[in-house]
Amino acid sequence: MTLPIPAIDLRDGKVVRLFQGDYAQQTTFAFEPEALAARYADEGATWLHVVDLDGARTGRFENLATIAGIASAGRLRVQAGGGIRDEDGVRRLLAAGAQRVVVGSMAIRAPETVAGWIDRYGAERIVLALDTRFRDGAWTLPSAGWTADETRTLDELVPWYEAAGARHILCTDIDRDGTMTGPNVALYRHLAALAPSLDVQASGGVRSLDDVAGLALQGVAGVILGRALLEGAFVLPDAFAVAQKANASC
């Protein structure tokens, strides 16, 4: 079953979106983060995806109080990330009320360490953010808020994590992120072939209800919805309806 998951990206305590992960190309929205989270809950959301963009860049939690405030309201289960550099970061986010911790750079740079976290905290508590760009014939894995290039590829790490007991992967095609040009359906078809037992969350480029339906037909576990909701391309209840219809047809 495919679940639409609204997203809130935080920078300096504000709701923002970046274009293709570029911090210089930021759109700031006039929403209070906790009020926006409450609106998504009113519209039927059960999960919320939150990214501390300041933390992703610096390795320090800059928006932890906001994440804790959203989680403490008790209306949404929160998966949150940005700035996880060590196990203390995992513990701090869980203590702040996150149900799942999203691990990006460390998942790419230190997979053995992250596999240890999966063992200790459980596969349900860790989401691996393997965000990717297609370059020179391979799906590369930039890190540190997509500002640093790494040597490992998506095709190397995904099967490795599947064998290590991971459950959840969030994969963003960085070239589609924040662009509203449509998701890269072929990427998620590729991931399903690489590691069929993993629950994949699709992110990047969703612009319409047809995009939500198309991803649901690929069998992804979640569809992250950011700019499309913020800019009113469609509303969350309609995303749930089309996902449910697509799920029923599979």
TrEMBL record:
GO terms for molecular function: 1-(5-phosphoribosyl)-5-[(5-phosphoribosylamino)methylideneamino]imidazole-4-carboxamide isomerase activity. Belongs to the HisA/HisF family. It is found in: Cytoplasm. The active site is at residues 9, 131. The lineage of its organism: Bacteria, Pseudomonadati, Pseudomonadota, Gammaproteobacteria, Lysobacterales. Keywords: Amino-acid biosynthesis, Cytoplasm, Histidine biosynthesis, Isomerase. Its EC number is 5.3.1.16. Coiled coil: none annotated. It holds the Pfam family His_biosynth. It catalyses: 1-(5-phospho-beta-D-ribosyl)-5-[(5-phospho-beta-D-ribosylamino)methylideneamino]imidazole-4-carboxamide = 5-[(5-phospho-1-deoxy-D-ribulos-1-ylimino)methylamino]-1-(5-phospho-beta-D-ribosyl)imidazole-4-carboxamide. InterPro entries: Aldolase_TIM (IPR013785), His_biosynth (IPR006062), HisA/PriA (IPR023016), HisA_bact_arch (IPR006063), Isoase_HisA-like (IPR044524), RibuloseP-bd_barrel (IPR011060). It is an enzyme of class 5 (isomerase). Its main location: cytoplasm. The keyword Nucleus does not apply. Pathway: Amino-acid biosynthesis; L-histidine biosynthesis; L-histidine from 5-phospho-alpha-D-ribose 1-diphosphate: step 4/9. This is 1-(5-phosphoribosyl)-5-[(5-phosphoribosylamino)methylideneamino] imidazole-4-carboxamide isomerase.
